[in-house]
Specification:
15% of the residues lie in helices and 14% in strands. The chain is α/β, with parallel strands linked by helices. The chain folds into 2 domains: 70 residues, no CATH class; 65 residues, no CATH class. The longest helix has 16 residues. It is globular and about 45 Å long. The chain starts with 20 loop residues before the first strand and ends in an 18-residue tail after the last strand. It comes from Phyllostomus discolor (pale spear-nosed bat).
Amino acid sequence: MAGNHLAFLPLDLGRSRELQYVYVDNNVHLKGLPSYLYNKVIGCSGCGAPVQVSEVKLLSFSSGQLTVFLPAEVKAIGTERDCILPLQELAMRSLHRACHRFLKDLNFLSPISLPRSLLELLQCPLGHCHRCSEPMFTIVYPKLFPLRETPMAGLHQG
């Protein structure tokens, strides 16, 4: 995936145990990596660039001097103090659970049953919770893992 003008990676990338190496070198718009890549060997030299004006509209979170912008599909940033999820997130989770429990397939939903953007999001969630593996559709709970603090820190240089 090196040099492909990537801005974001799927939040579930790295969830599979079979994936051991990820090389995303020379993607200047890529500023964050999914947390599932924490224990993987990552090549990411030449990633990151100064904030662009268009990114001002995206949600972001900061830790120290580092600011990470999130994909446009993310509508909310959750914290451990949040006890109620946004209505759209609750609706998407309920619909996803119902579809998978009773029909085992989302292909029965026609393009007129939901707006295209919601149908695509329902078929491919933003990510999954690290604790319970529930799909997440519009909200994320970000945490920064500086590369120098990962178990594979020595392999990230290059």
